[in-house]
Amino acid sequence: MDAGTVMRELEALGKERIKKMYISNGAKEPVFGVATGAMKPLAKKIKVNQELAEQLYATGNYDAMYFAGIIADPKAMTEADFDRWMDGAYFYMLSDNVVSVTLAEADIAQEVADKWIASGEELRMSAGWSCYCWLLGNRKDEEFSTEKLEGMLETVKETIHDAPERAKSAMNNFVYTVAVSYVALHEKAVEIAEEMGPVEMKRDGKKPSILNAFEEIQKQVDRGRIGFKRKYVRC
């Protein structure tokens, strides 16, 4: 299946209501408005195709870029490839839900995510912290350094309130994910979350969001979900 055929298939799946929702969250034209679940039958036909994924991502069409992440081959992508994808990720739904998710299945995930976190750039920081969330929620605890994660928790505590807005959300989610999915640091993450307190995240054209990792962690404690790992990262 070539890129033109895929674009026509995606366009046919678009819904105006979903398109408006994507645009309200920061997507820019061109957008078809395809629900992520509606992409699954098409993804099953194509499976993994990195060349096609690159062609679709390069279109700048939000739905095509999202679909590119589903059919990409993360292990075939280099650091330069991921950086190029980040260059095209113009809002958080691409940086955090496409690029960081794809990176999370690559062997170089932590190495690249660390550089993005240190970049000082809002969406790269957001993608880096988000990548760790996807990693922690899927990979075995033995694949991580407890000392490193503990240091990252301290960094969040010290910098989150002054961080770029989208990075605040990803950093808050990092503390939550460590508490839920990395058992060795559950207590430490709970302590950090309590010390952080509520975090205000400003949003363009919308009321600020109040993030509270401590409250969200307690909900998972009450549900007995500490230690949760998801089977897959990408849908």
Description:
The protein has 235 residues and is mainly α. The protein is built from 13 helices and 2 strands. It has a two-stranded antiparallel sheet. α5 (62-71) packs parallel to α7 (92-103), α8 (109-118) runs antiparallel to α9 and α10 (146-159) packs parallel to α12 (186-196).
Short description:
This is DNA alkylation repair protein. This protein has 235 residues and is mostly helical.
Portion of residues in beta strands equals: under 5%
The largest pleated sheet is described as: 2 strands, antiparallel
- Termini separation: 20 Å
Count of extended strands: 2
Global shape = globular
Helix count, per DSSP? 13
Note poorly predicted spans.
none
Instruction: Estimate the mean pLDDT confidence.
Output: 97
Radius of gyration: 18 Å
Task: Provide the helix percentage.
Answer: 55-70%
Notable traits:
DNA_alkylation; 13 helices; 61% helix; ARM-type_fold; mainly alpha; 235 residues; 2 strands; DNA alkylation repair protein
